[in-house]
Amino acid sequence: MTDAARPRSILGLLARLVWLRRGVALPLAGLAILLFVGSQRACPEPGLRVATFNIRNFPESPGQIDGAFETIKALEVPVIAVQEINDPVAFAAAAKRQLGKSWRAEFGPYAGTERPLLPGVLYNGYHYELDYARLHRGTQTKGSGRPVLEVRLFDRNGGPTLRVFVVHLRAGGDGVETRRAQLQVLTGIVRRSARGGDQVIVMGDFNSTGEVDRVNLGQFAGDTGLHWTTQELGCTAYWRPQNTCLGSALDHVFTSRPAGEAVARGPCESVGCEPGESCPVFYDQVSDHCPVTVAF
């Protein structure tokens, strides 16, 4: 037998054996094939991982673009909710350039004259296929605020279909009542979507600056039946009151299925929630928010 004719896989070798010794080898080959296929199925698939990342006023500078996508690449997650994107075309181009041609950025049917700071979903098209994207504008209270982006993604590998909602609620300590009203609108949106069998993930910048906000977030989780997976995080962003730098838990993820791990990455992980007089370099060069990852 020439090298070109030699079987080059286990299944090829078994097929050759069956042909040469059909009477004896067929039952053994069938058993071997079943064991081989079973062993392949037994290999665990990587668990679902998602992230949310508010990239302040993207793009602020070429350095911010590089720093943001270096951070995203290090997360090693296939689906990322993003906020504060001023130039979605530049963002999508940078994603392909720095992450690879399979990456897609979806912002829904926004208008060209719409206010900036758009919510979006960045995903790896090798793993997921877009079903649809739509904007829910009920959270734009009194003509201001950001819409909620809803994106539905099919898993190309047969995993659960994802229904992702990207949130960016009103900022500021004086915005508690507005955020409460926005959460009430969001509750209705999520309730309607949760009736199907999709895995629902609500994530983004909730701007939860105080205890009342956290009470409202707990109410949102209870009313929607979602798991508040980031409830125990100490901080996800930094701010500078009176010549110091403090951490605050502004970014959150709510899921229809319980998650195994939620972590604030970047400087929130390496530096901590009380860096002292100066905020981390990341604050000035990339964003005042840290990316938050959730693993199932």
TrEMBL record:
Domain Endonuclease/exonuclease/phosphatase: residue ranges: 51-289
One Gene Ontology molecular-function label: catalytic activity
Annotated InterPro entries: Endo/exonu/phosph_ase_sf (IPR036691), Endo/exonuclease/phosphatase (IPR005135)
Matches recorded under SUPFAM superfamilies: DNase I-like (SSF56219)
Superkingdom: Bacteria
Stated name of the protein: Endonuclease/exonuclease/phosphatase domain-containing protein
